Amino acid sequence: MSLCLRKRLLLEKPNLDGIENPIWVHCASVGEFNTFKPILSLLKKSFPIVLTYFSPRAKEFLQSERDLWDFLYPLPLDIPPLVRKFESIVKPKMLVVVERELWVSLIKFTKTKKVLVNAYAKGNFLEKLLAPHYDLILTRTEKDREVFLSQGAKRVITCGNLKLVQEGEVKRPKVEFPKGYKIFVAGSTREGEEEVILRAFVELKRAFPIVLVLAPRHMHRISEVENLIRKFGLKYSKRSKSSRVEEVLLIDTLGELKGFYSVADVTFVGGTLVPVGGHNILEPAYLGKPVLFGPYTHKVRDLEDILLKNRYGFRVLDEKDIVNVVSAILENGFSPKKDLKEVSRSVKECYLSNILRELE
């Protein structure tokens, strides 16, 4: 029997010596942890944190975030005796569940206060079963709030999407761009998108001094994208081998995309011109950059609404749209309606203040 399974069965009793009245935070995996991280870092200043997770693949990453928890453990199997036993060992002041962890025993059979954060509603049976068992639900949108209330939830407050809360310093890349040139960064691109971007870039080069930073979502596709760049007859360099840019800089390294967004004049976020559903369209906008994205945004629909509403986002369908929108931005400038950092601060305060109020 694996160690992880032994822990989930509580065959090895968790040792919480010295940890009293903690907040128990549960997240499915790394994504949910990172979403809640800005709030967790503030809670950790005043309360011990017991962190549970579901995905075994998250363990290594969460262990590296040691400053944000006092005790880390895989979620026990979702049967009443085990979740009750774990609760009796932890003795939490509150259980905070991040997003859509719909575990029946965890929610129905624990006695501590329960708060669901960054909640979004699909209107299914499990939601209806579990919504009344939360003491507080903090939702992304007003529509989510209405659904949870219709399902019998006690208290529901709309705070906004926690993904809007972006923190941490951005490291600007040490790259030599041609002087006076505009920078177009296309990030997290997928198969079928690079060719559209490159066709648009060739047209834009005829009208503007401009360079392209192209960052495929998956590194195993670098050779494929290189062949595409050659097909268009463009001069390019790979980030791993050069810090100079002639026409196209191909990003074949990890962890630098945010830095390249920070120096961009205009950006495109991939997974949106093909039916993937979208990647993080918020990241460049938070850095004050205009963001182009395609019509396939079902995974980031609420973020799309925020960007469109605040004039950070521009929906495009093909290379012709990309040329037209980028040209308009470069010629006329970019005037967003509101600084997203203000929105971020408001969302953060809403989540933190309501959790603290519930703790009181």
List the helices and strands and how they pair.
Blueprint: H1 3-8, E1 23-27, H2 30-43, E2 49-53, H3 59-64, E3 71-74, H4 80-90, E4 94-98, H5 104-108, E5 113-119, H6 125-130, E6 136-139, H7 142-150, E7 156-158, E8 182-189, H8 194-205, E9 210-216, H9 222-231, E10 236-238, E11 248-250, H10 257-263, E12 266-269, H11 282-286, E13 291-293, H12 301-309, E14 313-315, H13 319-332, H14 340-359
Parallel strand pairs: 1-2, 1-4, 2-3, 4-5, 5-6, 6-7, 8-9, 8-12, 9-11, 10-11, 12-13, 13-14
Helix pairs in contact: 8-13
What features would you highlight for this structure?
seven-stranded parallel sheet; alpha/beta; elongated; 360 residues; Rossmann fold; 14 helices
In words, what does this structure look like?
Helix 8 packs across helix 13. The protein has two domains: 3-165 and 345-359, 3-Layer(aba) Sandwich (Rossmann fold); 182-340, 3-Layer(aba) Sandwich (Rossmann fold), CATH 3.40.50.2000. It is built from 14 helices and 14 strands. The model has no long low-confidence stretch (mean pLDDT 94). The protein is elongated. The protein has 360 residues and is α/β, with parallel strands linked by helices. The longest helix is centred in the last third of the chain and has 20 residues, at 340-359. The protein has helices spanning 3-8, 30-43, 59-64, 80-90, 104-108, 125-130, 142-150, 194-205, 222-231, 257-263, 282-286, 301-309, 319-332, 340-359, and strands at 23-27, 49-53, 71-74, 94-98, 113-119, 136-139, 156-158, 182-189, 210-216, 236-238, 248-250, 266-269, 291-293, 313-315. The chain has a seven-stranded parallel β-sheet with strand order 3-2-1-4-5-6-7, sandwiched between helices. The chain has a seven-stranded parallel β-sheet with strand order 10-11-9-8-12-13-14, with helices on both faces. Strand 6, helix 7 (142-150) and strand 7 (156-158) form a beta-alpha-beta unit. Helices cover 37% and strands 18% of the residues.
